[in-house]
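Sample intake sheet
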Amino acid sequence: MAVLVGDLAFAYDASSLLRADERDLSLDIVVVDNDGGGIFNFLPQASSQPRERFERLWSTPHGSDLVAVARAYGVEAQPVEDMVGLQQALSEPEAPPGVRVWVARTSRGDNVKVHERLWSAVGAAVAGLGE
């Protein structure tokens, strides 16, 4: 089983990894790490005020090495560099049971740009369907 969580949610709940090796679990945790608060970059405030002000008021950077955090709790953890690496990690046929953490570093700005392209593509695809 795999679960996808944001970096802040992972950081807040990291203590749940304590003694994970004593539980009968087979779980891959994929952490999207944009150094916190990435969701706020989708708000109008992100582009309507100076970047430094936006960062000070809206961002919630944690500044933590989440791979090191997971390892501190005795859980196997690795960074993943791209989707191919993540797919390979999650499809290991002989993965031993236990909890593994995969940390995918992302860019807040790049994430917004990707979503904007997707929204445009969906809008274009459905334009005129209801006419």
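Comment: The domain at 2-126 is CATH 3.40.50.970 (Rossmann fold). Residues 108-126 form the longest helix (19 residues).
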